[in-house]
Amino acid sequence: MRLMLITHSYLPERTPPQRRWTAFIRSFREAGWDVDVVAPPADHHAADAPSPQRLGETETGPWGERIHRTWSASAFPATRIGRFAGHIVNALGALPVGLAVDRPDVVVTTVPALPNAAAGWILSGARRAPLIVEMRDAWPDLAREAGVRAGVLSRAMESVVTGAQRAAQTVVTVTEGFADRLVSRGIGPVVTVGNGAELTAVHPLPPRQRAAGELHVLYLGNHGESQGLETVIHAAASVVGEGIQVRMVGSGTQRPRLVELNRALGSPVEMLDPVVAEQVQEHYDWADTCVVALRPDWESFHRTIPSKTFEILAVGRHITGVVVGEAAELLRRSGAADIAPADPEQLAQLWRRLAADPESTDTGGRGRTWAVQNADLSALGDRFVEIAETVVAEHRPIAAASAQKSLPRQWAANLALTATTVAEHLSDDPALLALQVSRRLPAAVRGPLAQFMARLDGGALQIPGAIGLAAAGRDEELTARAEGAAQRGEADRRLVHYADVLTSVGDVETAARLLDQVDARTAGRAAALARLDWHAGRMHEAVDRLSGAGREGRQRDRLGSELATFTGYRPRLAAMEGYSPRPRAALHVLNNSLPHTGSGYAQRTHAILTALRDAGWDVAAVTRLGWPVQTGTLWAAPVDTVDGIEYHRLLPPRLAAGHDARLQQQAELLLELVRDVRPAVLHTTTHFTNALIVQAVAEAVGIPWVYEVRGQLADTWASTRGPDALESDRYLLFTEREAEAARSADAVVTLGRSMQENLIRQGVDPQDIVLCPNAVGGVFLEEPTSREEARRRLGLDPELSYVGTVSSIVPYEGLDTLVRAVAQLAPGRPDLRLLLVGDGTALPGLIDLAERLGIRDRLIAPGRVDRGLSPDYHRSMDVFVVPRRNSDVTRSVTPLKPVEASASARPVIASDLPALAELVQDGVTGLLVPPEDPGRLATALGELLDDPDRARSMGEAGRRWAVTERTWAANATRYHELYLSLVPVEPGAGRA
């Protein structure tokens, strides 16, 4: 079996985690395991540290383990933020390294290096191996107690650590108290493998011979916030001149401050720099008693035992324990310690008592005996091996049950696909890549990380800081910072980078002004101008602007290939002879799907497929080329099965070069799948590239195809740009190709009357259009639980008032109008809360807006939630709000979530737009208000909040409408009848 260990410290460093895991790895190797250690190069302070290694460089450890190096972080300062930044760098480096090594049977990641939790979590998923999270400290509790709660990283740390703990097959702690705390939080299983000492390397010492009144006190270890070493220095100042000598050896974030305190008190402590292992023995020889300290005001330290405790016990030295809780109890049981409170005078009194009696620090070997019985790292390592073997044994049946054919080959292809995708984006638009990566992080991580990055400024940090501002939605600050850079005369190349970031957030005017100031010969300027043109829809201008050489040439080819798909390109496939479709078999060709996204698109698709299956159809689905790997799911399998529905993936190791070539590639791969699945009908959804592919395949095998128009994507694109977008190349070509796709299909499905009317205007035969509106099923058809019960399930205060939405958080949803409306109501309604459930590009800006309006404490934004929680979030609200902006897309496209809200018996307030008027009967199931009018929305909210009987009546009317007119079962009948009208009468006969 094979172990992958992710740690922040390993040989040749000399640290507690290194000593622990060097011993444990010996146990694994003796048990026959192969071991890969993923760790950064040794800290440059280590005496025998080699020169920094390159990323991925491999060496062999003392037990035959392979040590794979990540990036060095030695350039970061020895501060809390510096160490954390270093841990982030190490964890980022661990990802490509961990993906490159042989597949492990189990992944172990060690905390307190917090980003390691994320790296281990990701790698265990990517390598399909079980995860063991080792918690060497009580994180994230310690983060709060250390005051990190006041910083922007606290929520990110808690989310990462808690998420990894819950994802792990087993969590290992070093104390029983913290294990109990985790179990009380619903985390499990949790086992304890305490810290210890390598007894073969730690030799017991006889007590030092000393006279009465003499005492040598040693503190050897970390000088950080956790130890509260000010107490030791003040106690030492109290015993100056009494024959008691105090020595402190080590380093840490608080060392400079402690040195200054010691100097201010007259240097009562001999403060020495850290030493290597060979010199540690000299200090133990000198000492009569050794201090073990943890500050008592941090509650987590009641469940923490300093790792140095075990080495001191093994050496046989007496311990002065300035500890509480589990650590104090351990020292009492050892019979080799005296305990003092964290009070300088009482600590000084203990030392005076010990000094007076030379026999008081003679432990009689009791500490060594306790260590042999309880803290032998060799025996503890054997225990960890047993835990790992159990985890692997329990995981194998699960893995076998879900294993897909040729998964290792598929994962290798996924990695190759990811690498080429990242390389392509880095070349084309690195600023956009950075933003896209940040937006795919969990909301609890993304927000704090973006705020942290936004603080970066000056010199080379300006562009990372600009990306942070963009990710945080602080667009006005981004614009101001970019304009300031231009006014200061920053380098032209830096202004080009600013322009790229501005373009990625849609501030094209400022981007254009910056690029106008830049010398035309500046590297990257032409590419930035082309990106600006492309963003504005000036597709031909963007292509013409670029030269045919180097990076510009590659960008020109890429944009030109995409332009070709807008100007008439079609995939070409030879006819397949002898194709024989299976009766009542349908294959849906999709953009995305469950289980890798819970979007409304995916929910609608799954509801349709399950309803068709229940109606007697053999249905399956396949997602677009490269999905979901290109959006970050590295461990995607060739097929996912959800509720009995198979979702196939098209995941080649490499995508063809160019947008048009990729359409051809997807058509060829889809044809191979169709040959295997043998559907009688193909069914796809917007946009037109899907239609081009499906039409080519359908014609090749001679079966009908259906085009489902779920949105007007050209209008969606234009809605985030100015009015000129409606006259741009992209918009005009986009709308024409969409109309052409709909006219070419054998049948068209759409969601509402407004969209049906648009299709008719585009030349689609009304007889070919079938209306299948968004609907509900499953739990939404059940009698809804009470509002109070839903709130209790979600941890919401049942006594407060909640208004809000469950939605994709994107600009055209108009949620800024809702934030402003709640801000108007807030002063007179202290119990009012705004609940925004979902995620998207607009969320950071909404959080920032709430902050500026003074209602950040009223906003609850849990981010994207599990689809099983969606019904409770709907039911928890007093009023459900759909405040969409007024645009072509919102006037036509009907969303799913308000239908679910009505089914949940919630009154719905929506913008007065044609598409939403199909879903909300004004004054009956809810209220319609003018779009983009916070005042009118606030008035409507106030009316329903002040009249709960009216609100309840509207909710009940909405539920009656939803469960009688908007069910997936009813839609399945429409699909069933449509398919039967298209499929040949005789099963197995293809179309001419």
UniProtKB/TrEMBL annotation:
- One Pfam annotation, family name? Glyco_trans_1_4
Where is region (Disordered) located?
41-61
> Where does the record place the Glycosyltransferase subfamily 4-like N-terminal domain?
18-196, 599-774
- Keyword Glycosyltransferase (UniProt): yes
InterPro entries recorded for this chain?
Glyco_trans_1 (IPR001296), Glyco_trans_4-like_N (IPR028098), Glycosyltransferase_grp1 (IPR050194)
Q: Which CDD domains match?
A: GT4_WbuB-like
> Does the keyword rRNA-binding belong to this entry?
no
Q: Which residues form the Glycosyl transferase family domain?
A: 787-961
List the Gene Ontology MF annotations in alphabetical order: hexosyltransferase activity
Q: What is this protein called?
A: D-inositol 3-phosphate glycosyltransferase
GO BP terms in the entry: carbohydrate derivative biosynthetic process
SUPFAM superfamilies given for it? UDP-Glycosyltransferase/glycogen phosphorylase
Keywords linked to the UniProt accession: Glycosyltransferase, Transferase
